[in-house]
Design a protein that fits this description.
mainly alpha; 90% helix; DivIVA_fam; DivIVA_domain; Cell division initiation protein; cell cycle
């Protein structure tokens, strides 16, 4: 509607044309503002619709991506669980086999150790018996040899004994000689004493 070029018919004793023109100018200005605002809102609405479509497309893409990711995660989780279960079962079997092998090996080692220990004990007992027999033989031999040595030594002259006997005989001889000397000295002293007494008697007479 063309408000600027709108013309009204004149009538007798009608409204004031200037006031009508002023009012129409205001109406035109307000209408133009509303029209421009409407255009702006339409543009914004169009942009909003476009943005909304983009957001919806993005949201759909995100949903699709999430669905794919969720499906992939479920598949990966299922596969991981399956692999983990298989790994656990395989590991359990391997552990059981290794434990059984270790037990069998330990039993063999223990059995071998018992046999070796038995052999060592028997060998030790044999060596002890041989040692005791050897010591008994050595003892008997040494006792026999010592008896022979004692018998031989008893028949041999004893230099120390002879020396002691010589010393004893020498001591006895010296004692005898001293006794003889003392016996001979007593009469001599008595004779001299008698001579002295005779001389004294003569002098007194």
């Amino acid at each position: 509607m063309d408000i600027h070029n709108k013309e009204f018919k004149r009538s007798f004793r009608g409204y004031n044309e200037d006031e009508i023109d002023d009012f129409l100018d205001k109406v035109v200005n307000d209408y133009e503002k509303l029209f421009r605002e409407n255009d702006r809102l339409k543009e914004e609405l169009a942009r909003a619709k476009k943005d909304n479509e983009q957001y919806q497309q993005l949201e759909q893409n995100l949903k699709d991506t999430l669905l794919v990711a969720q499906k992939t995660a479920e598949e990966v989780t299922s596969s991981a669980r399956k692999n983990a279960e298989e790994t656990r079962e395989n590991t359990a079997r391997e552990c059981a086999n290794k434990v059984q092998e270790a037990e069998l090996k330990a039993d063999r080692i223990v059995e071998d150790a018992k046999k070796k220990a038995q052999v060592i004990v028997e060998e030790y007992d044999r060596l002890v018996r041989e040692k005791n027999n050897f010591l008994r033989k050595i003892k008997v031999t040494l006792e026999s040899e010592l008896a022979v040595i004692d018998d031989t030594m008893s028949q041999l002259p004893d230099p120390e004994k002879e020396e002691r006997e010589k010393k004893a005989m020498g001591t006895q001889a010296e004692a005898l000689q001293k006794a003889l000397s003392d016996h001979q000295a007593v009469p001599y002293e008595a004779k001299e004493l008698g001579k002295e007494e005779n001389n004294e008697n003569k002098q007194e007479g």
